[in-house]
Write a structure and sequence with these properties.
Elements lengths: L9 E3 L5 E3 L7 E4 L6 H11 L17 E3 L5 E5 L8 H13 L6 E5 L16 H28 L6 E4 L2 E4 L2 E7 H5 L32 H5 L15 E5 L8 E6 L9 E7 L4 E6 L2 H8 L3 E5 L6 H7 L7 E3 L14 E7 L2 E2 L7 E5 L4 E4 L4 H12 L7 E3 L14 H13 L3 E4 L2 H7 L2 E2 L2 E10 L2 E11 L12 H4 L5 E3 L17 H15 L1
Parallel strand pairs: 5-6, 10-21, 19-20, 24-25
Antiparallel strand pairs: 1-2, 2-3, 3-4, 4-5, 7-8, 8-9, 10-13, 11-14, 12-13, 15-25, 16-23, 17-22, 18-19, 18-21, 23-24
Length: about 525
């Protein structure tokens, strides 16, 4: 659990930077809120319904992206969650390049909800896009601070100094130089960063756009990284949860049944209204066997057939809601070429199933999820603690493809941890992930296009599918999901399946296929 008694000396500059000397052994700390990016303001606001005062505001502990120690170590607190996409390496390239640090002096750390830059979600391939500019500004500002302090120590004007691979040196005499660590050593107070730090020209990049060793490659090759499924704590229990037998099943009643007397069982938690019944036991297998013996009565709901689901996917214009329209496409569709495509339900099938560990003793959470703040809110509500007193750790994820936008396992582990007062780890089985996780909804796509004199003069793209995020977002959702004019099925029915985003071929790939057919006919 983080030591919150060690107060750090920080202040917020008029440009929103957090700057200070940090704890003992850290010479300079600087951060900048990623929330200053308008797109991130939008996403954070919609996902968590934050107030305008909360978006981009500093947290109780500093939003520290960089820390430089007198030992010449540059600690870079990575804001995003690595799902295997190499984002930690990409962000480090940006930070190291603009800071002019040496690759070998970097100590890349994963931020958590207690310290480091705060960001709500890692998803949609937006990490580099949204972090690129603010991260460069933060790094450039820190570089200018280092040059300013080196100017005082070397008695050389700042315009005669430059930062280069972890040192600040005199341009005309490279033998006169100070390492970053030497620059920050003994400094008790720092001035405000410059209003407009000069960013590097792209021709000066050392790491961006270049091949560099992945930050995590060697550790992963040696099997060192710990994923959420691997996390253990002293006196930890394992949890298992009863799952509904059908898509629309709801829990009618539940009791301990035979599970209460089974070997290893420490506690049983039941909340019929929430549809939850779970077991905490000494081993994972004991918990899973006991969960099967819970006495539960289910209302199975509607039993869907594939034909019934297919009947919901209607792509004619009268059944669609217009999402984007340009010109008079429908009036211009004379003797159109028509292509129909379909894609079925798809599971995410990531390598690491859902997993979470909730420690109510130390108020710590480890969760295999793409959003730390979402997990913090859910677990703090279950445990009835202040969210700021709960630390959610940033762990490696064993794949996701959008599935781990949810925090199912954290909620389940929290309920069982509350019932036992001990750390509880919930790890889904592969079968649970396949049967009870979110899926990409089935979809059909009809592209109609008219061609005259070798040119596409009009086209219409109708898509029938589940809404996924449309119910969670207001009108500006087009900024996030709609790249081209298209239509979406308007509640002709609901299959009852839990649907969510899947980072794989879906609506966009169907569109590309149909457009290629038209191009071949030109």
């Amino acid at each position: 659990m983080p030591d919150r008694s060690k107060k750090k000396r920080f202040r917020i500059t008029r440009r929103g930077f957090l700057i200070g000397t940090g704890t003992a052994g850290v010479g300079l700390v600087l951060g900048i809120g990623l929330g200053r990016e308008r797109f991130h303001r939008f996403l954070a606001g919609q996902f968590h319904k934050l107030t305008s005062e909360g978006i981009g505001a500093p947290v109780s502990d500093p939003d520290a992206w960089f820390e430089i120690t007198p030992e010449n170590v540059v600690r870079f607190n990575v804001i995003k969650i690595d799902i295997g996409q190499g984002i930690h390496t990409a962000l480090t390239q940006i930070a190291a390049d603009e800071l002019c640090a040496h690759w070998d002096q970097l100590d890349v750390r994963r931020s958590n909800t207690a310290f480091g830059p705060q960001n709500d979600f890692t998803f949609g391939s937006f990490s580099v896009t949204t972090a690129y500019e603010p991260l460069r500004i933060a790094a450039a500002s820190m570089r200018e601070l280092l040059i300013g302090e080196a100017s005082s120590k070397l008695s050389v004007p700042t315009d005669q100094l430059e930062a280069h691979l972890g040192v600040v040196r005199v341009k005309a005499d490279h033998s006169r130089q100070l390492t970053f660590g030497e620059v920050v050593e003994g400094v008790d107070a720092w001035p405000d960063p410059p209003d407009d730090p000069v960013l590097k020209d792209t021709s000066e990049f050392t790491y961006i756009g270049k091949v560099v060793p992945r930050i995590d490659f060697e550790d992963k090759l040696r099997g060192n990284p710990v994923y959420t499924y691997d996390i253990q704590r002293p006196e930890m229990l394992y949890g298992a949860v009863a799952r509904p037998p059908t898509i629309e099943a709801t829990m009618v009643s539940a009791s301990a049944g035979e599970a209460e007397s089974m070997p290893g069982v420490a506690a049983i938690a039941i909340d019929v209204e929430a549809g939850f019944a779970g077991v905490a036991a000494r081993t994972r297998e004991q918990a899973r066997r006991a969960a099967q013996e819970l006495d539960i009565r289910w209302d199975e709901g509607r039993l869907w057939s594939q034909d019934e689901i297919d009947a919901l996917l209607v792509t004619n214009s009268s059944a669609c809601t217009s999402v984007s329209r340009q010109g008079d496409g429908e009036d211009a569709l004379h003797q159109p070429l028509i292509s129909d495509y379909a894609a079925p339900f798809a599971v995410h099938a990531h390598l690491e199933p859902q997993a979470a560990l909730v420690d109510p003793i130390n108020n710590e959470v480890f969760v295999s999820a793409q959003g730390l703040k979402a997990a913090q809110d859910i677990v703090s509500e279950v445990l009835d603690v202040d969210p700021d007193d709960l630390t959610v750790h940033n762990t490696y994820l064993g794949g996701s493809f959008g599935r781990k936008m949810g925090t199912d396992s954290a909620n389940e582990a929290a309920r069982l941890a509350k019932a036992t007062g001990r750390p509880v780890h919930v790890g889904w089985t592969r079968e649970e992930d396949m049967r009870h996780g979110y899926v990409r909804p089935p979809q059909r796509c009809r592209l109609s296009a008219s061609v005259e004199e070798g040119r596409i003069v009009a086209w219409s793209n109708n898509i029938a599918s589940g809404k996924i995020l449309f119910d969670a977002f207001p009108k500006p959702i087009e900024l996030l999901l709609v790249e081209r004019p298209r239509s979406l099925d308007n509640d002709s029915g609901n299959s009852g399946s839990s649907c969510g985003g899947l980072l794989a071929g879906g609506n966009s790939s169907l569109f590309e296929c149909s457009l290629q057919v038209v191009e071949c006919l030109l």
